């Protein structure tokens, strides 16, 4: 009897130790915040209007909207989990309510791996559209983020990123506003306030962000958490307030121009050869600290 009692007490003790160890393993230490955030989903959460994780499918997760057209799109390892690989491809969507009307301020964030395709003497160089909110029957959407991949040869890792906004004027005409990073400004340009940034991210994963601020008319570009846009091109409209005003209806497109989707492109307007991941759109202008935090969190898989 005494032996059985000792055995029973030993089993109870071992079970208790195993339970405590199990709880300790499950709970685990929490990771420290980055920029005050625990997850990329926390950055600007109240103003996030669209999010494409691109983990095995093209669904926009906030509205549960699937692409209406998927061309040349497969899914493989991306910057965070899976991403979409576009081989002469794109994803086009029906109108999404949260994106279907004007956002006076906007931030677009995404990861992309894109290679130059042109250079001096090339007859095949062309830009690579990454994301846009389209205008019907027009190549340029209301807001666009793309790479001028036709400017350099595929062996050159300098990548020119471009943000382009098309604002609807009161008379219905279109007001084009753009911003780029400038790889090699001239000495005269530098003397006039231009700042160069080569953005040496061609052919590898990089995090890109474009922001538009209505109150100042400022248009900024970031790569891997740092501003890369040429300040000489950032202030649009003379620095006066310049809110966006969309042509509607507008629909999101990943990887090409609306003219391609509609079937009437010019020769230089083609589907993308690129990998894209983690697309987010906010109806606000994220500040530099939040953009860097977003980059670090997504890079860490958080």
Automatic annotation (TrEMBL):
InterPro entries: ConA-like_dom_sf. It comes from the Bacteria. GO terms for molecular function: carbohydrate binding; hydrolase activity, hydrolyzing O-glycosyl compounds. Residues 1-20 form the signal peptide. GO terms for biological process: carbohydrate metabolic process. Keywords: Lectin, Signal. PROSITE patterns: PROKAR_LIPOPROTEIN (PS51257). This is Concanavalin A-like lectin/glucanase superfamily protein.
